[in-house]
Amino acid sequence: MIGEFYDTISYLKDRSEVRLFFKSLLTADEIATLMRRIEIAVLLSAKFTYDEIASLLGAGKSKITNVQKNFLQDDSGYKIIVKKLINDRKRRLIKIKKENKENLSPFALVKRKYRGHFLLDNLLDVAIEKLEINDKELEKEALLFTPSASIKKVK
After folding, report:
1. What does the CA dihedral 84, 89, 95, 101 come to, rounded to 10 degrees?
2. What is the DSSP letter of 11?
3. What is the 8-class DSSP label of residue 73?
4. Calpha distance 145→60 (Å, rounded)
5. How much is the pTM?
6. Confidence of residue 155 (pLDDT cuts 50, 70, 90)
7. What separation, in Å, do the N-terminal and C-terminal C-alpha atoms of the chain show?
8. Is the dihedral of CA 107, 108, 113, 119 positive or negative?
9. How many CB atoms within 10 Å of residue 42?
């Protein structure tokens, strides 16, 4: 029966189907509880202390301890999702930063209209961007980047 539950989830083909399924299966509070556990795992992976996590998320220390125990297991599903989530957040942050940078440029509209004429310029921008991105800084930013919730930054 449990295996069939896992199969059921694997049948879902995109975010929309996943959203509809979990919306039908769980209450909003249950979904929030699950996501809070994932956020705790993200912060634990970044070596945040229990006190910092409790302050940031309002989670109790017993909840943090439970997540920590599961996170430390060799077969922890948290490790899989934390890695994927952080990588996704990095991609979103890079996209947001790129869009903000383009919107500030006085030539942004001209470049969009005449893309072919600016091919070399675009290639140079991409190369420079790759050099400018500090992966450790981006990783730190991605840890605290949650588009759907406001989390205070810890310095």
Report:
1. -150
2. T
3. S
4. 21
5. 0.65
6. very low
7. 46
8. positive
9. 25
Q: Label residue 58 left, alpha or beta by phi (over 0 means left) and psi (-120 to 50 means alpha).
A: left
Structure-block tokens of residue 77: 């599903």
Evaluate if residue 152 carries a pLDDT over 50.
Answer: no
Tokens of 49: 């202390």
Reported as a single tens digit per residue, the pLDDT across 61-103 is 999 999 999 888 877 788 888 888 888 888 888 888 877 776 6
Helix (H, G, I), strand (E, B) or coil at 144: coil
DSSP at 149: S
CA-CA distance, 138 to 146, in Å (whole number)? 14
- Which domains, from first to last, does the chain contain? 2-143 (1.10.1270.10)
Report d(CA 44, CA 38) in Å as an integer.
Answer: 10
Give the number of C-alpha atoms closer than 13 A to the C-alpha of residue 17, restricted to the C-beta side. 7
- Over the stretch 6-46, which tens digit does the pLDDT of each residue have? 999 999 999 999 999 999 999 999 998 998 899 899 889 88
The CB-side HSE value for 6 (13 A sphere, CA atoms) comes to 3
